[in-house]
TrEMBL record:
Gene3D superfamilies: Acyl-CoA dehydrogenase/oxidase, N-terminal domain, Butyryl-CoA Dehydrogenase, subunit A, domain 2, Butyryl-CoA Dehydrogenase, subunit A, domain 3. This is Acyl-CoA dehydrogenase. Residues 246-398 form the Acyl-CoA dehydrogenase/oxidase C-terminal domain. Its cofactor is FAD. GO terms for biological process: fatty acid beta-oxidation using acyl-CoA dehydrogenase. Homodimer. Belongs to the acyl-CoA dehydrogenase family. The keyword Oxidoreductase applies. Residues 12-131 form the Acyl-CoA dehydrogenase/oxidase N-terminal domain. InterPro entries: Acyl-CoA_dehydrogenase, Acyl-CoA_Oxase/DH_mid-dom, Acyl-CoA_Oxase/DH_mid-dom_sf, AcylCo_DH-like_C, AcylCo_DH/oxidase_C, AcylCoA_DH/ox_N, AcylCoA_DH/ox_N_sf, AcylCoA_DH/oxidase_NM_dom_sf. The keyword NAD does not apply. Keywords: FAD, Flavoprotein, Oxidoreductase.
Length: 430
């Protein structure tokens, strides 16, 4: 009987250390360094503040906890990673301090799996060491969730790839040492069969960041970290390819699943934080002679939030457990990852809204982290593919092997079933 909800005592000790370390040493960074790039930019003042913290994480053997030991990680597996990421989800800076921030995690994964020795030496090692930042660039201005509409081209000219086209929302392009770009290398076949991943180092002539887009209501254009990029006759050597030509989407598959489940794990951390705020608020605030906590409509909000968070958390950990079991993105793993990806913005919306609402005007203000959390609601519904697309994956998978009814009436048609049941129990019936 292997269903078990307990944590090994040794590992629980490590989690306890992480909780304290994140609360005392990392969460204060969120209060001081506010720019969107601060948690990632090696040139930001925050990077200097994070350096000794990274060392401490390394000395505890918790660096790059998403990776196996062959790549310098602890080889914790996904279930333990889930419990760790719940803690890291409490701060924008914690994933970087622990060497497990997106999109570098997924980029390291594909470099490790598909990169040449030269690419690994040049990019993978410094990425794993947290010395450089990378970018993954697939979305285009006219198309995101439908790659069939991508147009950015890569054509071979002698021993060079020549890129032409535009990319959109390429996170961290402005601070990245290199971009991994998905481009159409064979326009005569379907996009999924004719695209190639190509590494473009920063500063390559012909690559231009048109502007940096921000998430949320930032006043200044160009304040964000999501690059709108144009390639014009941008040339890189043929061996800049990551994986075989035409197989860019196969390479991409091996990174996207990980990114999605890690987001969901960290979202549990954010949900827990919103719940903590909500609990403190309702036992502290008085109205009409009693605490908010004593009002039944408030109690309903607490109970619903608790149940939704627990359900979501268990689903995320179940998906992690499946991934540990199968060790690859099998069909059941992909279904559960899409299911939690689709559920994530809804749970976040419900819980963060209740927390905001129960704080009244203070909740709406810039004097608690709640409005920052609110911005993650739509973000989690879009990043790594919109909710609808993930629901389609879940529904198709659930329905794939379901057989239609034999006749006009379904297999569970009561009169037909009753006839069979009566025959089965005929000896006992008059
Ligand atoms: C914070 C953030 C970071 C990102 N970082 C990166 C990055 O680093 N690299 C990168 O390449 N991209 C990145 N993206 C882009 C992201 O992958 C795309 O935004 C996403 O795939 C959706 O594409 P789109 O924005 O073009 O929306 P569209 O594809 O235009 O979809 C818009 C809406 O149409 C509806 N819709 C779409 N398809 C269907 C369907 N099949 N059925 C029903 N309704 C549908 C949904 O409501 C959807 O929200 C990032 C996005 C965000 C928000």
């Amino acid at each position: 009987m292997a269903w078990d909800f307990s944590t090994d005592p040794d590992f629980e000790q490590q989690l306890e250390w992480m909780r304290k370390f994140v609360a005392e040493e990392i969460e204060p960074l969120d209060l001081v360094f506010r720019s969107p790039a601060a948690p990632f930019d090696p040139a930001s003042p925050a990077a200097k503040a994070m350096a000794p913290l990274k060392q401490e994480v390394k000395s505890k053997g918790l660096w790059a906890c998403h990776l196996g030991p062959e790549l310098g990680g602890g080889g914790f597996g996904q279930l333990k990673l889930g419990l760790m990421n719940e803690i890291l989800g409490r701060s924008r800076f914690a994933p970087t301090v622990f060497g497990t921030q997106a999109p570098d995690t997924g980029n390291a994964e594909i470099l490790a799996r598909f990169g040449s020795e030269e690419q690994k030496q040049k990019y993978l090692q410094p990425l794993l060491d947290g010395e450089i930042v990378s970018c993954y660039s697939m979305t285009e201005p006219q198309a995101g969730s439908d790659p069939g509409q991508f147009t950015c081209r890569a054509r071979l000219d002698g021993n060079e790839w020549v890129l032409d086209g535009e990319k959109w929302f390429a996170s961290h392009a402005c601070i990245a040492e290199f971009l991994i770009v998905m481009a159409i290398s064979d326009p005569d076949v379907k996009v999924h069969e004719g695209s190639t991943m190509i590494i473009v180092p920063k500063g390559t002539p012909g690559m231009e960041i048109i502007r940096n887009t921000a998430v949320g209501p930032k006043d200044e254009i160009d304040e964000g970290v999501h690059g709108y990029i144009r390639f014009t006759n941008c040339r890189v050597p043929e061996n800049s390819r990551l994986g075989p030509a035409g197989e860019g989407f196969k390479v991409a598959q091996s990174r996207l699943g990980g990114g999605r489940i890690h987001h969901a794990m960290r979202t549990v951390g954010m949900l827990n934080k919103a719940m903590e705020y909500m609990k403190e608020r309702v036992v502290s605030r008085q109205t009409k002679g009693e605490r908010l906590a004593d009002k039944q409509m408030v109690q309903e909000k607490i109970a619903d939030s608790y149940t939704q968070i627990l359900q979501f958390r268990l689903h995320v950990l179940y998906a992690a457990w499946l991934l540990d079991r199968d060790q690859s993105y099998t069909r059941p793993v992909r279904r559960e990852i899409s299911a939690i990806k689709a559920a994530m913005p809804g749970v976040l919306q419900d819980v963060v809204y209740r927390a905001l609402h129960l704080h009244g005007s203070l909740g709406m203000s810039n004097e608690t982290p709640l409005m920052d959390m609110w911005q993650y609601v739509p973000e989690m519904g879009i990043v790594d593919g919109p909710t609808e697309v993930h629901k389609i994956v879940v529904a198709k998978d659930i329905l794939r092997d379901v057989k239609p009814s034999d006749g006009v009436f379904p297999s569970y048609h009561t009169p037909t079933q009753r006839e069979a049941a009566r025959a089965k129990f005929a000896a006992y019936l008059d």
